[in-house]
Amino acid sequence: xxxxxxxxxxxxxxxxxxxxxxxxxxxxxxxxxxxxxxxxxxxxxxxxxxxxxxxxxxxxxxxxxxxxxxxxxxxxxxxxxxxxxxxxxxxxxxxxxxxxxxxxxxxxxxxxxxxxxxxxxxxxxxxxxxxxxxxxxxxxxxxxxxxxxxxxxxxxxxxxxxxxxxxxxxxxxxxxxxxxxxxxxxxxxxxxxxxxxxxxxxxxxxxxxxxxxxxxxxxxxxxxxxxxxxxxxxxxxxxxxxxxxxxxxxxxxxxxxxxxxxxxxxxxxxxxxxxxxxxxxxxxxxxxxxxxxxxxxxxxxxxxxxxxxxxxxxxxxxxxxxxxxxxxxxxxxxxxxxxxxxxxxxxxxxxxxxxxxxxxxxxxxxxxxxxxxxxxxxxxxxxxxxxxxxxxxxxxxxxxxxxxxxxxxxxxxxxxxxxxxxxxxxxxxxxxxxxxxxxxxxxxxxxxxxxxxxxxxxxxxxxxxxxxxxxxxxxxxxxxxxxxxxxxxxxxxxxxxxxxxxxxxxxxxxxxxxxxxxxxxxxxxxxxxxxxxxxxxxxxxxxxxxxxxxxxxxxxxxxxxxx
Length: 563
Ligand code: GLC
Ligand code: CA
Prior knowledge:
CATH topology of the largest domain: TIM Barrel
CATH architecture of the largest domain: Alpha-Beta Barrel
Strand content: 15-25%
Distance between the termini: 32 Å
Helix content: 25-40%
Shape: globular
CATH superfamily of the largest domain: Glycosidases
Bound molecules: alpha-D-glucopyranose, calcium ion
Largest sheet: 8 strands, parallel
Number of strands: 23
Radius of gyration: 24 Å
Number of domains: 3
């Protein structure tokens, strides 16, 4: 099977921080349109834009108030049409972030729903009576929410609780109600009729909820993923979306399936023969370092073996039956070089990480700023934080453990979802070229040394390397092998080197990257070098067929067939 999206290079745009087109300090649609030529030059031909629907912005737009309207701060529907028509001219496909699990509490459906128990929209959401213990109201179950606290919120008007597995302002929709599904299909059609190419489906593993019984994990409020992740009905719901929307429009869909999606679940969602989604983003490989156990970032260590094992497991499982996105991190996780690279080898480690991920089998999805090796922000105080999930969860943890508040805050500052949300660093002028006025959120102070403009003018930059990688996939004589060839990891037990082969009928390509700041060696006698395809040092240090790999070195080459 061959599809356009298997051959694409995807790029995730976090709209609020990407580019301010009208100089009010907030990224917007016009800003994206202005940068489409830039993305085209980088080699990107598929963009995923995070939500820009009308929203009170409790969670930067993932709380949708009106799916048919563009948020004023991001522009207008006409701005979107302009974006789309320019994207079409450049052959860039556009997918939207479709939020299915919840809406804003200011969405009209919810405003109606909370009015009375017999309102026609009541069943659009999940309402339950309080659990009364000793005459006191309690949430119906002890389920915790992702952002901290209970997954239920009391509403006085009808004396019931509504479910909200994210923030209080994000009530969960009731997918048992077919009208919800029909409404979502209508929304999807409306956007597809404008000419978009598909969707990234937000939080899509959580649509179905378990029966409302307490979690056994604790007597207290506890986040129990199993109560609302990857339950069997989820597949029924997505199949309805598929039949009613994705299939008739033949569109590309990529689901965000957090919630400890086992590979078996991922197969059900996205194998070629599944009638649900084209692919899924999973998070299995996102935390293979010791970040949760350390107090100082200088102690950060990547668990290379675990990372290799996880990535290989997904590749192995999907090799004949489906397709994977190739992505490191997104707008909810730390920055790539800070998380898996090494600041002392900023350039080398950024390029190495790009190599091993984006020459694998699947569709690359890079996150804005990754192409220049943007880093985490040096947060040192909670007052610098904007993200609702960080703020809620810190508040919640401190309320349970006040003596530990400093440690709780320090930890949160290391992993907060705000790291990837600082402004895109376009150049070395004030505010990093993001805007002419002070942006809504921080600019990383390193923008004078890490920015797009400088790197585009430097053939040895991270940016130029990404461009070369993408062009290898899309336009080179190796394209077919790099896109459709098989994937086979070798030297699985090596704790420093990540090595695999991509093979097609007539060609074998070896891709290798070192995660070490010490020299490593690799014996090429079984895989002699015919032609180097891409490397992150200027030359190769090889003697008697043994390559000496310098810190974070990566090399990809065509293997000479042996007689
Ligand atoms: C997804 C998004 C995240 C958002 C959440 C709720 O996980 O990636 O940013 O907060 O869904 O919509
Ligand atoms: Ca703006």
